[in-house]
Design goal:
A hairpin with a 4-residue loop joins strand 2 (50-57) and strand 3 (62-68). The chain has one domain (18-146). It is of the alpha+beta class. It starts with a helix and ends in a 16-residue tail after the last strand. It is built from 4 helices and 7 strands.
């Protein structure tokens, strides 16, 4: 009986995931919840952004989500990004995701911060973004030493 309980506890712990999904109607609502300060999205997304959804994996320090903004804000937002470099991502499905989003009319951009990289899938006509974020190095390594452009 003791082995059964131990097995169930191990199974329960192994099956748990620290993924937190949050929805924000506006940029202000997200800012008030410290979404940007915690690093899940960069602060420079358009302040007019709305319908913001984030799913943050706390164990892996990874995030994915989407948001919308007025089409008129597209050029200003894109000016903070660079075209997607094709960098590898720590997701097994990332190449499939890239191809699927491209087929749906999305253009890829990226932004590399000191510790994280965001890949933004932008649909210019809709003012819509899907994104993925992950850590790009451990906090001990200076980013310049591993070839990362620091913003």
């Amino acid at each position: 009986m003791k082995e059964l309980w131990l097995f169930l506890v191990v199974l329960l712990v192994a099956g748990c995931s620290d993924v937190v999904t949050s929805h924000y109607a506006t940029y202000s609502e997200a800012a008030n919840d410290h979404l940007f300060g915690r690093g899940w999205l960069p602060e420079f997304i358009p302040s007019s952004s709305f319908n913001i959804t984030t799913s943050n994996n706390l164990d892996r320090n990874q995030s994915e989500g989407e948001f919308s903004f007025p089409v008129a804000e597209t050029d200003s937002f894109v000016s903070r990004l660079v075209p997607y470099s094709g960098r590898s991502a720590p997701f097994s499905d990332f190449e499939k995701l890239v191809n699927r989003r491209k087929a749906q009319g999305y253009t890829l951009y990226e932004f590399a911060g000191r510790e994280s990289v965001w890949v933004f899938f932008l649909n210019r006509e809709k003012g819509h973004i899907y994104y993925r974020m992950w850590l790009v190095y451990n906090r001990i390594d200076p980013p310049e030493e591993i070839g990362i452009r620091v913003s």
